[in-house]
Specification:
Elements lengths: L4 H8 L38 E7 L2 H8 L8 E7 L5 H11 L6 E5 L3 H6 L18 H6 L9 E3 L5 E6 H8 L4 H7 L3 H14 L14 H7 L5 E2 L2 E2 L1 H4 L1 H12 L11 H9 L4 E5 H11 L7 E4 L11 E5 L6 H11 L2 H11 L27 H10 L9 H16 L5 H15 L6
Parallel strand pairs: 1-2
Antiparallel strand pairs: 3-10, 4-10, 5-8, 5-9, 6-7
Length: 436
């Protein structure tokens, strides 16, 4: 995406998040700048749209967030079923194969998006008036399947960066300002120089990173080259640079050797023995805050030396066999409205996929957990500069395999070339249709 076009789109699509009052028959007026019939679906007014929508998901926050659409659509009901994210695809495929109940709203984590699309069970939501042009362009692209059909809306934009501790930044660099810290780590040479400074000044008690496998997905996502094409693996060809980076960081001995997801990894957020972590906007709410509950004001985020990247996100699609399609479309319209975006931000601090949200005052308020940083400025810049690669059916397997062999590299279990080759062999053993 060319620089400047995103900001121009924001101006063109600017809307206000405030409701304009009631209209005839108790209906809610469309947001300013939206069509007058925005809340209608297939000619039905908000009061005429009803039905019980089944939703499978794994986070209770989503339940509260989703139900807010009753502010506009009072006759839509929701039935929520807790399903662990790790069980979702299996439960869904089992239900489809057995003729069991399938949820009206389909949910897919980023690594499963292509799998959901490939099942052929997602309806064309544009046909129900869900407007793709309201989304941040890269998110609209990810919500479009290989046939060019708009089938999914994001729960959140997921721009990434580097989260760091302000107290350690002040101690070792004399400043905790995100712009200054970001300049210091604008490339990997600067990042390594900072790491050596921390190592020397702390006497080895503080590490730059927790470990390699907890950060490698960010570095993989910043690489926009494909890892597979027509079942031919391109890992050795396109991802050698990532493994060479890991080797360089390992040789510099700048991490604490903590494994991703281990108790020691989570404890490090509050212990102050690790300076920084790569993560997306949701990392603040779902990872740092729960593991450093006393850390409000002691964190910040800045640009990453690997460049802009997206990490994660959840996609919502309409099941094409749903008997409640109008109700699902209505909920999606709420999600792509200013009030839906603001509700999401205020409830779980997710940064909306709605372009116009980034012209609203509420999103530019200081983030107290991040020391008063106005973080939307940074996330907007990342989204403007970001390029994302096409989702693939086995993205989840690719990520887990790469994390495993990056950890093997960290443990000295082979050379870069040997472990890249082993990663490809491993994927072929799991998915025999792949070739080298």
């Amino acid at each position: 995406m060319k620089k400047g076009l995103f900001r121009l789109a924001l101006v063109v699509l600017t809307v206000t998040a405030m409701l304009l009052g009631s209209v005839a028959q108790g209906e809610i007026a469309a947001p300013e700048g939206y069509p007058e019939d925005y809340w209608y679906v297939n000619g039905k007014s908000p009061d005429e749209i009803g039905g019980k929508i089944t939703v499978w998901t794994w986070d209770p926050n989503f339940f509260t967030m989703i139900e807010k659409c009753n502010d506009v659509y009072p006759n839509i009901e929701f039935e929520f079923v807790n399903v662990a994210s790790t069980d979702y695809i299996l439960k869904l495929t089992t239900a489809l194969a057995s003729g069991g109940e399938v949820p009206d709203i389909l949910c897919a984590e980023m690594n499963d998006v292509a799998k959901i699309y490939a099942m052929g069970i997602c309806d064309d939501i544009a046909a129900y008036g869900v407007d793709k042009s309201l989304l941040v362009p890269y998110l609209a692209e990810l919500g479009t399947n290989d046939e060019g059909t708009f089938v999914g809306i994001p729960n959140t934009a997921a721009p990434g960066g580097v989260f760091y501790r302000r107290d350690l930044a002040k101690e070792y660099f004399g400043t905790d300002d995100p712009e200054e810290i970001g300049k210091m780590m604008s490339d990997w040479d600067g990042f390594l120089e900072m790491a050596q400074t921390i190592k020397e000044k702390s006497g080895g008690k503080v590490s730059m990173l927790a470990g390699m496998d907890s950060n490698v997905q960010a570095w993989l996502n910043a690489n926009t080259k494909p890892w597979v094409e027509d079942n031919k693996l391109l890992i050795s060809e396109n991802y050698q640079e990532t493994f060479e980076l890991v080797k360089r960081l390992v040789d510099a001995d700048i991490d604490a050797g903590l494994s991703d997801g281990s108790p020691a990894y989570y404890a490090s957020f509050s212990q102050g023995n690790v300076f920084c972590y790569f993560g997306a906007n949701w990392t603040e709410t779902f990872t740092i805050e729960p593991n450093d509950p006393e850390g409000a004001g002691n964190w910040a985020v800045c640009n990453a030396p690997c460049g802009p990247y997206n990490w994660g996100g959840i996609w919502w699609c309409m099941y094409n066999g749903s008997p409640n399609k109008d109700a699902v479309a209505a909920w999606m319209k709420y999600e792509l409205s200013p009030q839906g975006a603001q509700n999401k931000y205020e409830l779980i601090h997710f940064y909306p996929g709605l372009q116009s949200a980034y012209t609203a005052d509420y999103i530019y308020q200081p983030d107290e957990f991040l020391g008063g940083q106005i973080i939307a400025d940074y996330y907007l810049k990342v989204m403007e500069e970001m390029t994302v690669k096409k989702c693939e059916l086995e993205d989840g397997a690719f990520i887990e395999t790469m994390k495993f062999y990056c950890k093997a590299l960290e443990n000295g279990e082979g050379t870069v070339e040997e472990l890249l080759d082993a990663a490809e062999d491993d994927l072929i053993s799991k998915i025999p249709t792949f070739t080298k």
